[in-house]
Amino acid sequence: MFENNNLIKERVSDIRERMAKAAIRVGRNPSEVSLMLVTKTIEPAVIEQALRGGERLLGENKIQELKSKAPYLTSLKESDGSPLLYQMHFIGHLQTNKIKEAITYATTIQSVDRLSLVQKLQNRLELEDKAIDVYLQVNTSAEESKYGVEPAKALEFALQVREYDRLHIKGLMTIGLFSAEQERVRSCFKKLKELQLKMLDKGVPVEQLSMGMSNDFETAIEEGSTLVRVGTSIFGPRPYPDSYYWPQMGSNK
Ligand SMILES: *Cc1c(COP(=O)(O)O)cnc(C)c1O
């Protein structure tokens, strides 16, 4: 299926075209929105094809996969022999006993959603004398998911996280409702945008809005997304349902 290097390139360029159209529809500049390739379950050799095609932003959802693919991906070279550089974001639920791996293999953690995690991240980062970029995950679909801070508590949470100097807040992340009704999905994205404006008003630097996946990225861009996370539409269906990655989710996709 992936023998042909062009298949991934073609799918990526199709997605990028749809992204640009969505941005233009609402008067945004397409360059404001980045594309993350979500590579969970995808073999490193296939990910390499996307990197060779010029993609530079990847997302993984499980620490085990993040770690096991790192040796292959970090050893890739450009044609002139220099390292092939890319960004790897962690976008899955982060358990506190996996913090060490997360900060070793990811450049950004998009799923910061509770103070206990923030404190442990800060401690570990201090120990290693490092810092990391983070996004705060907000649960905009209420009943659908157990992860992410509640919208009503998000501003207070952001103000707290700001006190931890090893975590550099870059933005907000959400997983929209898994529903075929785009207007209900849209309200999740609107909610995240509203929270962003409130936080910016208080001086929390949440410039980035990570929202939108294969089924809803155009709606997310219309509502202000600056980073869409796309897996299936580029790499094809995964062998496991989404509930494997986000327990309690995806049952009615
Ligand atoms: C799997 C996943 C995606 C990509 O989902 P697709 O529907 O395959 O595009 C995006 N964000 C998160 C957090 C994910 O776990």
In words, what does this structure look like?
Helices cover 43% and strands 15% of the residues. It is an alpha/beta fold and 253 residues long. The longest helix has 21 residues, at 5-25. The site of pyridoxal-5'-phosphate (PLP) has 14 residues, from strand 8 and helix 9.
Q: Please tell me the overall pLDDT.
A: 93
By secondary-structure content and strand pairing, the structural class works out as alpha/beta
Number of strands: 8
Low-confidence stretches: none
Question: What is the radius of gyration computed over CA atoms, rounded to a whole number of angstroms?
Answer: 18 Å
Q: Report the β-strand fraction as a percent range.
A: 15-25%
Which descriptor suits the 3D outline? Answer: globular
Distinct ligands: pyridoxal-5'-phosphate
Distance linking N and C termini: 25 Å
| Number of continuous helical runs | 10
H/E series, N to C?
HEHEHEHEHEHEHEHEHH
Helix content: 40-55%
Largest sheet: 8 strands, parallel
Largest sheet strand order? 7-6-5-4-3-2-1-8
